[in-house]
Amino acid sequence: MTQIHCRESKLYISPMFDCYGGEIIALVMDTNMKKELCMKTVEETYKARNPGNGVIIHSDSGSQYTSGKYKELLGKHLAVQSMSDVAKCYDNSRMESWFATLKKEKLYKINTANMTVEEVKQIELSIITCPNICNICAPNNIRLIRSKLLLQNIFQFFVE
Questions:
Q1: d(CA 145, CA 160)
Q2: Helices (H) and strands (E) in the chain, counts
């Protein structure tokens, strides 16, 4: 989960990143960072993919992910929870790197602090979902995401 400053409040985004496929498979946004935001992300993930028993869901050790209700939800789906220790972000580095890239390459270039939450949500959805929809398949059926080019085009659309 990460936060984005908007005009009237902060917007928290909670994506689920598929490390195997290299794509965001679920995304939930809200103006609070309660456990329900993370729980909804898990539910959206299972609606989108239904990964089956034993899937590993990794997170940091924030209170949302250590709550009893969140752990209960993972148990309902027979998912395995993996969590970093406090101040040990290395096993969550792919998600942290994704957040850093999103912010540095896109969000810091537009002034989200002067935009409404709804405006920022629309930009977020465009940035995140378009590369996932616009995948191309290589001969060996590995998905290649042309996200850098697509993100540049989306960013130019909103700036112009």
A1: 25
A2: 6, 7
One-letter amino acid at 151 equals L
List phi, psi (to 5°) of 82.
-120, 130
Structure tokens at 3: 């936060």
pLDDT digits (tens, 9 = 90+) for 49-98: 888 889 999 988 889 999 999 999 999 999 999 887 777 767 778 888 88
Residue 42 and residue 33: Cα distance in Å, rounded?
14
The pLDDT tens digits of the residues spanning 122-150 come to 888 777 765 544 443 333 333 333 344 44
**Nearest CA to 117 among 26, 5, 37?**
5
Residue with tokens 């994506």: 15
